[in-house]
Amino acid sequence: MDLVSACRVFVHVSERGSFTLGAAAARVPQPVASRRIAALEQHFGERLFDRSTRRAALTPFGRDMLPSARRLVQLAEAMECDAEQARLRPFSLAVPRTCAVRQLALLDAAARGEGTVLDLRAADPPERAELLRSHTVRAALLALPQNEAEWTVPLGVASREDDGSGEGARPLRLETLRPGRGQRTFRRIRIQPEDDVPHVRDRLEQLGHRAALVSAQITVAATLVAAASETLRDGGFLLCSAPQATELGLRWRPLAGEPVARGYGLSALTGDDAERVRDGLAAHVARSLGATTADGTKGGG
């Protein structure tokens, strides 16, 4: 027997003195209301209503039980309200600052369609890890080496459209940036904060060393805005993904040779939180990152 549903009918019938009106108030058919009262009486072993009158009058036992029934119904309704509020509590997720606003909006819309309200926190890699470690967020997209990642983002270099190289979208060979003897100026590759992680930064520096670039040609910028601004000003390059280059209005080219890529993995405070993101939102997360999944499926840009 559903004790709460039976008590709800009991309370409504007793307040209205009618099985018909009480059933309507409880939003159940009158025969269902009668069966629930009968089940409740059988459960308690006593009559709740006097059947000898036309009005649904309470028996002495029914009057004694009514206050407890009201408390039970009120508590159940309060629990349902609390559960609804808990379901609507935002799910905090730390994401890279490089995610495009439109793609984050689509991710948020998809989450709402799944009954989840997202609280998206844009942060750089160390901040995202700390937000999760301090339990400030429930889940985070953490920077990982490509071979450990759920999603990968191929990286190349972007430059202003009028850089004068005439190279089109051909892959950039780093050795072509090698300064000539006595040359005092050279083109730089700037690393934005999102890629200031060992598996990206160190990899690019190794490739630069093999190409005989001077150390000052690969630098880390304090912010993405600073990196993009300097790239536009001096005709250098910004290490970034193709979708990010498009968003910034820059011309993107892949790097020749061995690939350089961002890697991301989802980490959450609980397994349920992780499944909540992976089960219904993985494709939207991939699109937000401009990524491919571990099985090679493209997430879009």
Automatic annotation (TrEMBL):
Keywords: Transcription, Transcription regulation. Pfam families: HTH_1. It comes from the Bacteria. Transmembrane segments: none annotated. InterPro entries: LysR_HTH_N (IPR000847), WH-like_DNA-bd_sf (IPR036388), WH_DNA-bd_sf (IPR036390). Residues 1-59 form the HTH lysR-type domain. PANTHER family: HTH-TYPE TRANSCRIPTIONAL REGULATOR (PTHR30126), HTH-TYPE TRANSCRIPTIONAL REGULATOR CYSL (PTHR30126:SF39). Belongs to the LysR transcriptional regulatory family. This is LysR family transcriptional regulator. It comes from Streptantibioticus silvisoli.
